[in-house]
C-alpha cells in the first residue's frame, strides 16, 4: 500500500507541507473578497477533491512547478468540504465546475481555467 501512497498520496494529506502559501477558501462570502483582491493582484483558485488520485497528482505537480508567489494570491478549495463554494464559483465566474480545476481571476473575471492534466503553473505566467 505504501507504493500507492507514494505514487498517489494519502487522501488525508493536507497542503501544510506545500511551498505554496495557500489561503483556504471555505465560504461563499470570500468570493467578494477575491473579486476585490483580484483588481490589485491576480488570484488563483485550486479546486481539489481529497478523495481523487488524479486531483492529488495535479495538485502535487502544480505545487512543484509554482513559482509565482509574489505575483498571484493562491486559494485552495476542498471540494468535499465546500461544494457550495464551488457551485457559487461556477455561477459567479461563469466557469463550468470540474475537479481538479485551476481558475485564474483578474479584475474580478476568470481569465483562465484548466482542469485535470491541463493544469500547469507555467501556463499562468502568460496571464499574470
Which key terms come to mind for this protein?
5-stranded mixed β-sheet, 128 residues, disordered N terminus, alpha/beta, Glutaredoxin, 5 helices
Report on this model:
This protein has 128 residues and is of the alpha/beta class. The protein has one domain: Glutaredoxin. 34% of the residues lie in helices and 21% in strands. The protein has helices spanning 2-8, 30-37, 53-65, 83-93, 121-124; strands spanning 23-24, 43-48, 73-78, 101-106, 109-115.
The Rg value, from CA coordinates, equals 14 Å
Number of helices: 5
Q: How would you state the average pLDDT, rounded?
A: 88
Largest sheet: 5 strands, mixed
**C-alpha termini separation:** 40 Å
- For the record, the count of structural domains works out to 1
Order of the strands making up the biggest sheet: 1-3-2-4-5
Q: How large is the share of residues in beta strands?
A: 15-25%
CATH superfamily, by name, is Glutaredoxin
Task: Work out the helicity level.
Answer: 25-40%
Number of strands: 5
Give the C-level CATH assignment.
Alpha Beta
Content-based structural category: alpha/beta
